[in-house]
Design goal:
Mean pLDDT: 86
Number of domains: 2
CATH topology of the largest domain: Rossmann fold
Strand order of the largest sheet: 2-1-3-4-5-6
Organism: Rossellomorea vietnamensis
Order of helices and strands: EHEHEHEHEHEHHHHH
Low-confidence stretches: none
Helix content: 40-55%
Protein name: Response regulator transcription factor
């Protein structure tokens, strides 16, 4: 079962999400938070696998709540579910630690698919969010960075773009999970990215998967 916490200040939105998600046999709705501060507290108490996080909430907004949760509970995956698609919201959300970013007009089946993707190590990004991230990377990057990766680090990065977990990458490349973690840490450092989503986008932009 995938344990899901819903954080949204609108009761109707929370009820709608609960109503639909409860129809999925592999999803367990463990709680509902009406603001970011409550989401942080419930994350610690309930230890959900996934949090569906609204962006604009009273007391503490979704970005600040995400930052607090990822700092204290890094294994919890956070999927932003909001009405805002501009880069002023997308970029801070991803930098805070959100692994996914979707708009509230998402089709219900796509939302469920996004939840499952996050738990399996894949990304769940709205096309507009992806475009904003690619633009941000383009502005920040230096063209030689991709060439700083070793052959094995490139192999790991390619596997990472496929949404594989550390365990799956280790199995594919016949190395240990500890070695995979070391390579991923080196990749983040060399490419100056902060998470798997940004690293995967960087690889796609530079067509590393086609080499």
């Amino acid at each position: 079962m995938i344990r899901v916490l819903i954080a949204d200040d609108h009761h109707v939105v929370r009820r709608g999400l609960v109503f639909f998600l409860k129809t999925q046999k592999d999803l367990d709705i463990v709680g509902e938070a009406k603001d970011g501060q409550e989401a942080v507290r419930m994350a610690g108490d309930l230890k959900p696998d996934i949090i569906l996080m609204d962006l604009m909430m009273p007391v503490m907004d979704g970005i600040q709540a995400t930052r607090e949760i990822k700092k204290n509970y890094p294994d919890i995956q956070i999927l932003m579910l909001t009405s805002f698609s501009d880069q002023n919201h997308v970029i801070p959300a991803i930098e805070a630690g959100a692994a996914g970013y979707q708009l509230k007009d998402i089709e219900p089946d796509e939302l469920v698919s996004g939840i499952r993707k996050l738990l399996s190590g894949e990304n769940s990004l709205h096309p507009k969010a992806t475009n904003h991230l690619l633009t941000r990377i383009t502005k920040q990057e230096h063209p030689h960075k991709i060439h700083e990766l070793t052959k094995r680090e490139k192999d790991v990065l390619i596997e990472l773009t496929k949404g594989k977990s550390n365990k799956e990458i280790a199995s594919s490349l016949y190395i240990t999970e500890k070695t995979v973690k070391t390579h991923i840490s080196n990749i983040f450092s060399k490419l100056e990215v902060s998470d798997r989503t940004q690293a995967a986008l960087y690889a796609v932009k530079h067509q590393l998967t086609k080499n």
